């Protein structure tokens, strides 16, 4: 009986959130050697784009500056990435989490019907700018999102699963 009561109390917050509260559960993913992986120890930030306009602007610039192949511009891109890391240290973030060994993260007690930027950053020896982000609206109840660090590589067919109840959008200004 005690086990059932404990289980009920653990599961109850997920199913009984009011219409103005939400939960966001997510995973990280990347492609390494043609296989889908879930990066661990990624700093995950939840930001309000209205409260962090500098971050939204830097992300937009980085999208335009992303080097392709041997094209010049990697210096500008790396400088923008450093500006992004600096802006995050100064920003008032809604919440912060570190992805688990399985690449999972969660944010609870969020305000529903709000626009957010979900941003993941990590230091990687072989990648000077390891980041992923998505901008979307938090819906009431349970939301799911995948932060995809794959910048154009392709993993095994059928492995990249679209996030549930979120959509990729331009970063709101």
Q: What does it look like?
A:
The chain is of the alpha+beta class and 173 residues long. The chain has a single domain, classed as Immunoglobulin-like, CATH 2.60.40.10. 25% of the residues lie in helices and 36% in strands. Strand 6 and strand 7 form a beta hairpin. The radius of gyration is 17 Å and the shape is globular.
Query: What is the C-alpha radius of gyration, as a whole number of Å?
Result: 17 Å
Mean pLDDT: 81
Strand fraction band? 35-45%
- What do we call the CATH homologous superfamily? Immunoglobulins
In the CATH scheme, the class would be: Mainly Beta
- CATH fold assignment: Immunoglobulin-like
**C-alpha termini separation:** 52 Å
Shape: globular
Number of helices: 3
Point out poorly predicted stretches: 4-10, 157-173
Main sheet record: 4 strands, mixed
Kindly state the percentage of residues in helix: 25-40%
Total of domains? 1
Topology, number of strands: 8
Written as H for each helix and E for each strand, in order along the chain, the element string is HEEEHHEEEEE
Question: Brief overview, please?
Answer:
The protein has 173 residues and is α+β, with helices and mostly antiparallel strands. It is built from three helices and eight strands. Helix 2 (53-65) packs antiparallel against helix 3 (74-90).
Task: Give the secondary structure arrangement, pairings included.
Layout: H1 2-15, E1 21-32, E2 35-37, E3 43-47, H2 53-65, H3 74-90, E4 95-98, E5 104-111, E6 114-124, E7 127-138, E8 141-148
Parallel strand pairs: 1-8
Antiparallel strand pairs: 1-2, 1-5, 3-4, 3-6, 6-7
